[in-house]
Amino acid sequence: MTAKQRTATALIIVLAGLCGAIWAGAPLSAAEIGDPVRGEILYRKCQSCHMVGPDARNRVGPHLNEVFGRAAAELEDYNYSKAMRRAGADGLVWTVEKLDLYIENPKSLVTGTRMAFRGLRDAEERRDLMAYLRTFSGSPRDIPESEPTASPRDPEVDAAILAIQGDPDYGAYLSSECTTCHQASGDDRGIPSIVGWPSGDFVTAMHAYKGKARPHPVMQMIAGRLSNEEIASLAAYFQELQVE
Amino acid sequence: MTIVTRRRLIGGVAATGVLLSAPAVLGQSRPKVVVIGGGAGGATAARYIAKDSKGAIDVTLVEPTRRYYTCFFSNLYMGGFRDFESTGHSYGKLASDYGVNVVHDWAIGVDRDQKSVSLAGGAELSYDRLVLSPGIDFVDGSVAGWSLESQTKMPHAYKGGTQAQLLKAQLDGMPEGGTVVVVAPPNPYRCPPGPYERISMMAHLMKQQNPTAKILVFDPKEKFSKMALFQEAWANHYDGMIEWVGGDFGAVEEVRPDAMEVVVDGEIIKADVCNVIPAMKAGVIAEKAAVTNAKGWCDIVPATLQSRADPNIHVLGDATNNGDMPKSGYSANSQAKACAMAVRAELTGSKAFPPKFSNTCWSLVATDDGVKVGASYEATEEKIAKVDGFISQTGENADLRKQTYEESLGWYAGITSDMFG
């Protein structure tokens, strides 16, 4: 992208901010927002929680297909935070400028959101990321044949294991081993937050470490000696825990 | 209808004798726990006992410093990767959010029969359970010519705080092309990779501001923690700057702090900066409580961290002779949680689960180049025994090393909030 194009894009963004209502009816194409190729690389920051693409489903975070123009907390089969549901009820719609604000600092737009992401400060990076996400939202689609994301799938966990009802009190005790590194406040500097995860995702991820499908050696070691019941209890505990 | 508060309820249950395992609570309002030492072991234990007993246990933490500077990450300060204040933490939240009574004083004696601790300021604290987490002190005469009085000339910088600042100031003020001598400690000692991470950080600093300086390391050991990883880093990042002499050839005969000389194998070496890390033993209050063994460390019951010498005293962290766990902040934090659970079970009858121990030690070897080693442990009758472990590999790619370093920053934020709330 040349400097001139960048200026033009910035101008469009500014105009978009001023006339959100107008272009909400005629969304910008991906290339008008930023560079989707760079955005795909930036998306790696998001993919441990969010899926996008043909097989996308809700995981720790909601899937991001057709996110542009979607109302906040609109997906019926995703368990949003109270704060996000309230924002949706108040009329928050994911336009370019709202998404831009949200990605810059999630908590400043939706205080109380469960999204434990510190935010992306660089405006150009945000535009590139949105350009990538834009390729997964409906017409006019400038890149119709977008590839599915590279987000690796964890191995399926046996239904019987997923069905185990964990004891959150036991999970609270076991969690002291986790909180040496994963902060109970949901802060995610250097080490991901595990606060507020849906228990199914938690159990699947822990079994992926236990079976060494996920590579991280510390987590392989920690998960390796947890029983199915212990994993279920941790999942039950962390699902209930709220981001401070 | 009578409103029963939680506290009264617990007292009432105890008074009916249901909690036969907790005779200490009979006839008094709240059982008392005194914790000596506010580091990774003591602060964590105080916080978890107070938090999980929800006010049923009276917790007092005795720690001389008002602001605690972690020993872990002090090397990153030395290398210029962090400022000193970023390693400092206050006890404010332990007091305000968890109700821990924080006393800034030195514990100078323990009367095991009376179950009381005497403080330098004159106060006496009685306890039902005492948690000792005193860290380390140095063995007198382990490096000939060096004593605690020498620490201003030849700092050990092996406790957080002013010693780390002093060594950093000496490194910053070193003449161009000068010589740093590091006298490494014999086993066992606090933070096995610590001296070698420090050497890496010294070399990093010198590469920026004094590239012709040399670092000479004399080490009584043949090998050390993460040796292959450190040696790889020294060759890749600091070629020709570091000379490590180990085993019999690394034994220092004498240091002369006034003359800034180190004598090795009959040869007198002139040092511009000399970092002496002497042999270690449990913090001196453990000796005063008479819970140390012949080698100066505290033998413990693995599952509960109770002293083998006195079941009313638990010992945590660096001061323990525990079996396989290294002396690290992570280990102390891990042991503190098992100890907190055992103490609560004894004093309030809460449920005790089998403890799980783990440890990871991250080391920064150069900019964005982090390595780690870790293991999980379990309590057997005899010791805390290693179950499984891992270590970073030589030749790992730069992305992974950067990720490991960033992970260590996350761990630092995590463990310090786990300690101080």
Please provide a written account of the structure.
The complex is a heterodimer of chains A (244) and B (421). Chain A is mainly alpha-helical and 244 residues long. Chain A has two domains: 3-134, Cytochrome Bc1 Complex, Chain D, domain 2 (Orthogonal Bundle), CATH 1.10.760.10; 159-240, Cytochrome c-like domain (Cytochrome Bc1 Complex, Chain D, domain 2, Orthogonal Bundle), CATH 1.10.760.10. Helix content of chain A is 47%, strand content 0%. Residues 1-26 of chain B have low confidence and may be disordered. Chain B has ten helices and 25 strands. Chain B has 421 residues and is an alpha/beta fold. The relative contact order of chain B is 0.15. In chain B, the strands form eight sheets. Chain B has a five-stranded parallel β-sheet, covered by helices on one side. In chain B, helix 7 links the parallel strand 12 and strand 13. Chain B starts with 5 loop residues before the first helix and ends with a helix. Chain A binds chain B through residues 170, 173-174, 176-177, 179-185, 187-191, 217-218, 220-222, 224-225, and chain B through 48, 330, 333-334, 337, 341, 353, 356, 358, 360, 372, 374-376, 387-390, 406-411, 413-415, 417-418.
